[in-house]
């Protein structure tokens, strides 16, 4: 039977020191410029700096970001993505016919990155594939949580910040595990495998 370690025992467990890699080793690990260019080109996006690749359990999803319509939100999303913030986070709230929500570090919908964003409500409508920011009652309370619409949701227009849209792979978004009940909370939810800015690949 596996023993659960108590505080006094876990204190004795130390992570092994990692050796610093020498210059020759890091050179081998660095992706060549040609390969990197091919990697980015395969996604066929207009602007690699403002496009994301979202890896889900069933496949890759491409998201084009609207830097002109929601500059602060796009900048913050890219900052969090580059920190690896979203990798492994759960789609904690998923309502069939409506949307899939993620971006909470606790997997409950109660957390964020700790930095609130002033609303950038724009004229972009909430359509199938729209990526928009979740928030509380306060219009300036968006943080790291966002949702992807499964279908058109016009009642959200002008009230939530639309910052992107799915341009490829929506069929994989459709395969995200649904929640139960009106609130859509999910038992054993699907996760973001990884989220990356395409220009960084």
Protein architecture, described:
The protein is an alpha+beta fold. The protein has a single domain (about 50-200), classed as Cyclophilin-like (Cyclophilin, Beta Barrel). The chain has helices at about 5-10, 25-30, 35-40, 70-85, 170-175; strands spanning about 50-55, 60-65, 95, 100, 130-135, 145-150, 160-170, 195. An eight-stranded antiparallel β-sheet has the order 3-4-6-5-7-2-1-8. Strand 1 (about 50-55) and strand 2 (about 60-65) form a beta hairpin. Mean pLDDT is about 90; it is low at about 1-30.
Core attributes:
8 strands, 5 helices, 18% helix, 201 residues, disordered N terminus, globular, Cyclophilin, single chain, 8-stranded antiparallel beta sheet, alpha+beta
Give a count of the beta strands, DSSP E runs of length 2 or more: 8
Element order, helices and strands?
HHHEEHEEEEEHE
- Proper CATH architecture: Beta Barrel
Radius of gyration, Cα only, in angstroms? 19 Å
> Span between N and C termini?
43 Å
Number of helices: 5
pLDDT averaged residue by residue: 88
Class by helix and strand content? Answer: alpha+beta
Largest β-sheet summary = 8 strands, antiparallel
Helix content: 10-25%
Number of domains: 1
What is the CATH superfamily classification?
Cyclophilin-like
What coarse outline follows from CA principal-axis ratios? globular
Report strand %: 15-25%
In terms of per-residue confidence, which ranges show pLDDT below 50 for 5 or more consecutive residues? 1-28
Stated plainly, the CATH topology is called Cyclophilin
């Amino acid at each position: 039977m596996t023993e659960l370690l108590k505080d006094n025992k876990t204190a004795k467990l130390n992570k092994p020191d990692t050796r610093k890699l020498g210059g020759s080793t890091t050179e081998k690990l660095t992706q060549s410029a040609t390969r990197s260019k091919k990697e980015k080109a395969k996604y066929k996006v207009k602007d690699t700096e403002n496009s994301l690749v979202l890896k889900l359990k069933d496949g890759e999803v491409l998201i084009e970001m609207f830097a002109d319509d929601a500059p602060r939100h796009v900048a913050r999303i890219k900052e969090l993505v580059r920190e690896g913030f979203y990798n492994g986070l759960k789609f904690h709230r998923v309502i069939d016919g409506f949307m899939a929500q993620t971006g909470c570090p606790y997997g409950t919908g109660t957390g964020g990155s700790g930095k609130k964003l002033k609303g950038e409500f724009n004229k972009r409508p909430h359509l199938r594939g729209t990526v928009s920011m979740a928030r509380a009652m306060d219009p300036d309370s968006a943080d790291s949580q966002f949702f992807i619409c499964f279908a058109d949701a016009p009642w959200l227009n002008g009230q939530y910040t639309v910052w992107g849209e799915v341009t490829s792979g929506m069929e994989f978004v459709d395969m995200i595990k649904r929640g139960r009940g009106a609130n859509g909370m999910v038992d054993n939810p699907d996760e973001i495998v990884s989220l990356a800015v395409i220009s960084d690949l």
